[in-house]
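Follow-up to my earlier ticket, as requested here are the two runs.
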Amino acid sequence: MKLYPLQFTPLYKYRIWGGEKLKTELNKQYTEENIGESWEISDVSGDETVVAEGALKGKTLRDLIIEFKGDFVGQTVYEKFGEDFPLLIKFIDAKTPLSIQVHPSNEVAKKRHNSFGKNEMWYVMQADDDAELIVGFDEKIDKEQYNKHLENNTILNVMHHEDVQKGDTFYIPTGRVHAIGSGVLLAEIQQTSNITYRIYDYDRVDEKTGDKRELHNDLAIDVIDYEVYESYKTKYEFKKNTSNKLVHSPYFRTNILDISDTVEKDYRYIDSFIIYMCVEGSAEIISNENTFLLNTGETILIPANNKIIVLKATNAKILEVYY
């Protein structure tokens, strides 16, 4: 059986802070309220996405890796991760702010949770007026001062608040405290991990449970990076019809394509699957004799053995993600 570009059926996640933009802005189809996340491509245990169309319909990522190995993920990726898929791909809609949180490193996550750590990045697709993200600290503090701020409910006073607009990009390495603010719709690329340490949650109550959400400060305090950095936002070039580097890390590489023509991509030098996330407009994705239409808010995975891809669009912005 030949591998072809694969779209997966998204998993929609209730979140206390979720809104309606996944439906109104990205045309996602669901009936539940407060959906905050659309998991587009996931190998998280119990939350595996399945192929939506074609001869491989119903297959999970693990099914595909077991059957096709390096042809699917790339030989280098297969040798490193085996049957585990290394990335989790999401769209996130924050109607109200997310909790202030931090993620552990690979080493800590492996020791404590037998999991990958959670390095991630954000690409802002839409932001309301005055929308902001919280990323890192504006003031140098130590663990003792950090604890005092938590006790006094003043932790927000020492964190870096950044006003955001469409196109803003942030890399969130493990250890960096962060939160998505209200009115932000974004694409998130991260390691396959569901480990989050929540450190502050505005004392709010989840209407579904009637309880405040659990905090994890005992776990968080030793993994936080307390340094202050000059800038937290990623700077990048934005040239038409070519791959512009956004975030290249040891865990994933992400570029952005601003397409207004026909673009041929040659992936013979990349030993990895490729993921396209359409963050604006729509584009045709052509592989061999297969053509797929990718609209805003849709995601497609190009198997590693599909090396020549043609993209056609008059106005589309696409995140290009690979290992």
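Run two:
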Amino acid sequence: MTRGIDNDFNRFKQIVRGKVRENLKKYITHGEMLGRQGRSIVSIPVSNIDIPHFRHGKKGSGGAGQGDGEIGQSIGQGDADGEGTGQAGSEPGERHFREVEVSLAELAEMLGRELELPRIEPRGKNRLSTQKDKYNTIRRRGPESLRHLKRTYKRALKRMISAGVYDPENPVVIPERDDRLYRGANSIVQPETNAAIVYVMDVSGSMTDEQKSIVRTEAFWIDTWLRSQYDGVEIRYVIHDAIAKAVDEDTFYHTKESGGTRISSAYRVVRDILNDEFPSDDWNIYVFQFSDGDNWGEDNRLCLEILEGDLLPVCNAFCYGQVESPYGSGEFLKELRTIQAKYDNLILSEIENKDAIYGSIKQFLGKGK
């Protein structure tokens, strides 16, 4: 039986999630929900929702409901002309927030609906098969932990009735050894669609903390969407200045170097990661590169060679986001545009500031690759 309070609570949750959907663009562009993350839940600050309620005046103060009232007469405290008698305050009013927990699956659904993202179609044979045990049979032998109690007692009851020893007045059923039945498992092969994501970021001196914050926010939403599309997702991180290396997530977002920039060094590391860990016949591969566009001029030719020869042929999507920096030249985007028409999986985006994150995500994920 459903209680009235349960219906009210479910209705309240729907209202709160409606508020999250209304303000999703703000959350996407400003990263307000990244403060506390669990494995499958995030906390989002939303403005408090005021519940309608009656406000009572002082007893005997008159007003509608206490004697004769006039049309338009104020019900609450204070005069009808609206002039208050309280003391003026010196502090600004506070805006109150409520933390709402939303699952990553719900966020992915909201993101897909808000940005009109198509469902991803995995490439060709990019499937892994896993063998799982499904308990869908009954057996006469097995471990006691798998005993099927209901079937065991039904079998014992049938035996006692057929033997004429069952007493309805004293319905005691005691299973014997031959009555025991156990759940049995069959091994089934299930296909799983998996994705490998490699994030690449320039950490040279021209990339500021503001640019890294943009990358972190955008990566969170990319992860959320791709995890909703694939059974399993593996993520790797590569940073570079003139030299590149694979790192963990914390190092990826908190490293700052002061050297020059050779993007080809990062492409080599990405190529090695894909060759060693993620063969394209078994994985759907995504590379997201973020840079301010600076690169050593003579390195551009080598970058395009590695990109066209090794990376683009195996990637579902190779996404390059150029984050505007007061110190970056932005020239590398022009180099990539010279080959963009030949590859529909090469996706380019200019990210001027946090407000541009919203459009950049749609560019990267909007093709359903």
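The only thing I checked on run two: DSSP finds ten helices and ten strands in the chain. Let me know what else you need.
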